[in-house]
Structure formats: structure tokens, C-alpha cells
């Protein structure tokens, strides 16, 4: 997991404006990073080789 795709913030119920600002900024940041390399074009997570072998 790319650490640039994870962010933790703390907002109380009274900080709706702060939450909106943080969410908007994070959305812009994620969009700049582009699609997640953990996803395929179909939108489902890629399976790791170990997972595929375990199910076989």
C-alpha cells in the first residue's frame, strides 16, 4: 500500500467545515496520484499469486 494514499484526520461532530476541507484536499491529492495500482481496469482488486495458488 502506498503511504501517499492513506491519511488520518480527527474531526469532531462540530467540525463539519474542517471535514469538508480535508476531504476535498484529499480527493484532489488522490486524483493527482491516478488510479490505484492494486486495481484492474474492471474495478476489482488484482489477485496475488499466493492467493491464486491457495484457491487452486
Walk me through this protein's architecture:
- The chain is an all-alpha fold and 56 residues long.
- It has one domain.
- Helices cover 45% and strands 0% of the residues.
- The chain contains 2 helices and no strands.
- It is elongated and about 50 Å long.
- The model has no long low-confidence stretch (mean pLDDT 84).
Separate helix tally: 2
Averaged pLDDT: 84
Q: Number of folding domains?
A: 1
Strand coverage percent: under 5%
Radius of gyration: 16 Å
According to DSSP, the number of beta strands is 0
Anisotropy-based shape:
elongated
The termini sit apart by: 26 Å
Task: Please give the share of residues in helix.
Answer: 40-55%
Which keywords apply here?
56 residues, 2 helices
Please give a quick description of this structure.
Residues 29-56 are annotated as: Disordered. With 56 residues, the chain is an all-alpha fold.
Layout of SSEs?
Blueprint: H1 16-33, H2 49-55
